[in-house]
Amino acid sequence: MKKKITAMALAFVTCASLLPAFKVFADEPAAEEVTLRVCNWEEYIDLGDWDPDEETIDLDNGDILGVTPMVDDFEEWYFETYGIKVNVEYSTFGTNEDLYNMLTLGDVYDLICPSEYLNMKLMAEDALVPLSSDFFDESDENNYYIRGLSPYIRDIFDSKEINGEPWSKYMAGYMWGITGIVYNPNEITKEEASTWTLLSDPEYFRQITIKDNVRDSYFAAVGAVKKDLLTSEEFLNDPNYALNLEAEMNDTSPETIQAAQDWLQSVKNNAYSFETDSGKADMITGKVLANYQWSGDAVYTMDQADEDDYTLNFAVPVESSNIYFDGWVMLKSGINQDPRKQHAAESFINFLSRPDNVVRNMYYIGYTSVISGGDDDTIFQYLDWSYGAEDDEEDVTEYDLSYFFSEDPDSGEYVISAPTDQVDRQLSAQYPPRDIIDRTSIMVYFDNDKTDVINQMWINVRCFNLDTIPVLGKALIVIAITAAVIFIIRSKIRKKAHR
Amino acid sequence: MSKFTFSRKSLGIPYFIFLLIFVVAPLVVLFCFAFSDKDGHFTFANFANFFTDPNTLGTLFYSLAVAVVTTIVSLLIAYPLAYILSRSRLKSKAVMLLIIIAPMWINFSLRISALKEILTVIEGNLAYYPFINAVIGMTYDFLPFMILPIYNTLVKMDLSLEEAARDLGAGNSQTFLKITLPLSTPGIISGVMMVFLPAMTNYVVLDMLYNSTYIMGSLIGSYFAAYNWHGGSMIALILLAIICLFNIIAGGSSEENNQGGALL
Q: Does residue A491 belong to any structural domain of this protein?
C-alpha cells in the first residue's frame, strides 16, 4: 500500500516537473498567433456542411464542396502557407448604418465589408489603412485577388475616386450586384416590371413591397420622377450618357428631394409594405406580386420559388439601376500599424478570392463575386454548370459575358448557351448582360447635410401626418384617455373619502 | 471605521449595481443626447421639434390610437376570462391558467409569423387593414399580461363580500358592479399599464407582422438608423415622461392594494 502511494506521489511529481516544459512548448506558437477581427454581412460567407450527394459542384477543374466553414479553412490555409497561426474572430452586421453605429460606439474590427458608399464615407473620414503594394503584386501566386479580379470591376475601382484617391487604394471588392424587381410573370408583364413606376401603379394596389431603407427608396424615387428624361432618346444617345446618368441619379437638389418624397408617399399608399427582411418570404408565398430587390436576394428568391414549382422573374428598370459593391477595407483603429495583422487581413481577402472559394461563397449566398478568375476558368465553368442549357434544350440563347470575364468586352470569348427563360431569371440577376450594365449608376456617399435632409425626407414619408388622421379619430383618442384619467382620479378620491 | 456586516440589506447590492449600470446610466446618456445638438451644445431644439412637427405628432396620435384600442380589446377579452376562471369550481384551475400562459413560452417571432399566415388566410391581403392588424397583433402578444393581474386580484378576493351583498338583496349585476369590479380595479390598472405602454412602442411585432404601420418605436428606430441620436433620444424621453405620468396617476391605488401588481 505504502509503495503504491509513493509511486503515485512520484508519478505526480514527475508530471508536475514536466508541466513547465509543456507550457513553454504551448506558449511558443501562441506568441506568434495573430488575431483578426472580421465583421461581415449576415449570411454572407460559406458556412460549409454541404450534402456531398446533393450539392457537390462537379466542374472540369475538380469537385467543389463546402465541408467546413470558410473561416476555419482560412485559418488552416494561413498556417499551412505562412506558418503563422491566425485566429479569426468573425462577427456580422445587419445594415451599413448598424455597422457605422457600432464603429462610432467603439467596436474595434480589423477588416470589414460594407457597401461602397460607407467605404467612401470611411475613406473621407481617414479611418482606413491603404492596401499594401504586396497585395497588388501579380507575380505572387497567393495573391488570388489581384490575379483574379474581373477587368470590368478593376476598371471601376481604379477610376472612381473620393478626395482624389481611387477606391482600389483602400477597398478590395467582395460581392457586387444591381437593384431590380422580382415579379410574378403570370400577373405582371416584363414591360410593366421594367420600370420604377410599377411601385406606384394603382393597378397593383397593395401587392408590391418596397425596401424599408432610405437609400434604395431614394434611388427608385429619383428614377421614377425622372423617368421621362432618363428614357428620352436625346439623353440615351448623349456621348456622355454614363456621366450624365450618374449625375442625375445622385441629384440631391431640394426640388428632387421634394418630388421623391411626394412619389414615395404615393408608393406608401399603394404598396403592400416597406420590408426589411420579409420581402423574400412574402414573394415566395405569393402574398405579393412584385418586390423591389437586390440582385443576390433576387437569385435566392427565384431559387426558393423554383423549389415550390412557382416561377418568378427578375426585371431591371429601364430608367436606371443601382450598381453596388460590397468591399473589404481595413480599419486604422483595428490594424493599428501591426504588419502581421495587415498581412493576415490581406491574406483573408486573397483566400476568399481563390476561385474554388469564390464558387463556394457564390453557391452558398447567391450573390456575385467581383472575381472572374483571371487565368483560372473555374468560375466561368461554374456559371456554365449552373446556367448552361442541357444538350436537348431547344430554346437556347447565347449569353455573352465577355465584358466581365475578359479584358476585351467585345471579344465574345465568354459566352454561355443558356435556356432562353434564364435571360429574365437567375442568370440575368447574378450576371446582368451588358445592355443592363450600361444603364446602371453607382450611388455616391452624400455629405452629412444632404444625408440629414434625405433621412428627414424618409422619416416624413414613413410617419403618419397629423393632418391625415381624421378629426373623429383624434377626438376619440383624446376622449378615451381623458376618461381613463378621470376614472382613476375619481376612484382614488373616493377611496380617500372612505377613510 | 465601520466594519462590513452582512445583513439582509446587503442582498440588495447586486440589484442596486444592476440598476445603476443598466437603468440609471443609460437614462443619463439619454438625457444628455436629448438636450444636445450634433456639436454637443445644450439645446431645447429637439424638444421643440417634437411638438411642432406634424409627422411626429401624427405618429404619436396613431400609436396612442393603437394602444388605446389594444388595451380596451384586451380588457374586454381578459376580464370575463379571468372572472370565469377565478369563479369556476374546476379543480384544474391551474391547468386552465397554464393553457392561457403557455403561448407565452413559445418564441414570439414564431407566434407572430404564424399569426401573419392565419390573418392572410382570413383577410386575403393584410395590407387592406393595417390598423386592425396592428391591434390584433398587439392584443395577441400582450393579452396574458392583462389576464394574469386581473386573475390574481379576483382569485384573492374575499368571496364573503359578494355573499354578503347577495344576502342583503343585491342582484347579480349589482353585486358585480358594486363589489367585484371596484375590488378588482388594482388588477385592471396594472393590466392596463402592462399592455398600454408596450402597445405604443413595440414596433417589432408590427414589423414582423406587416411592416407598414409606423408607431413611436419605429420612429425612434428611424432616427437612430439615420445617426440622429438626439432626436431619437428626445422621443424616448418624452415617451418615458408619458409613462411616468400614467404611473403617478395610477400608481397610488395599486400601492395601497398590491394584490394586482404581481405578474407570474
A: yes
Question: Has residue A17 been placed in a domain?
Answer: yes
* B231: in domain: yes
Residue A45 · residue A365 · CB < 8 Å: yes
Query: B61, A473: Cβ pair inside 8 Å?
Result: yes
**DSSP character at residue A181:** E
Instruction: Tell whether the model's pLDDT for residue B79 goes beyond 70.
Output: yes
Is there a contact between B211 and A212 if contact means CB atoms under 8 Å apart? yes
Q: What is the pLDDT of residue A224?
A: 95
A157 assigned to some structural domain: no
Cell numbers that stand for A352 in this block: 476568399
**A110: which residues sit within 8 A by CB, 6+ positions away?**
A36, A37, A38, A330, A331, A334, A335, A341, A344, A345
Confidence of residue A14 (pLDDT cuts 50, 70, 90): very low
- The C-alpha cell 438636450 sits at B35
- CA B119, B125, B126, B129 torsion: positive or negative? negative
Contact A415, A398 (CB under 8 A): yes
Does A492 reside within a domain? yes
In sign, the C-alpha dihedral spanning B205, B211, B216, B220 is positive
- How many domains are contained in chain B? 1
Binary contact (B125, A473; C-beta < 8 A): no
Check residue B212 and give its pLDDT: 66
Name the domain count of chain A.
Answer: 2
CA distance A481 to chain B (A): 8
Q: Which residue has the higher pLDDT, B260 or B60?
A: B60
Q: What is the mean pLDDT of residues A114-141?
A: 93
Which residues lie closer than 8 Å to B222 by C-beta, 6 or more apart? Answer: A455, A458, A459, A462, B232
Which residues from A are below 8 Å from B128, CB to CB? Answer: 206
- Give the residue numbers spanning the domain of A20: 1-32
Reported confidence tier of residue A195, pLDDT bands at 50, 70, 90 = very high
How much is the ipTM here?
0.81
Residue A482, chain B, CB below 8 Å: the answer is no
Global confidence as pTM: 0.85
- Residues of A in Cβ contact (< 8 Å) with B112: none
- Structural domain including B246 reads 52-261
Apex CA A338: angle with CA A334 and CA A344, to 5°? 80
pLDDT of residue A168: 94
Q: In CATH, what number is assigned to the domain containing residue B73?
A: 1.10.3720.10
Residue B8 maps to a domain: no
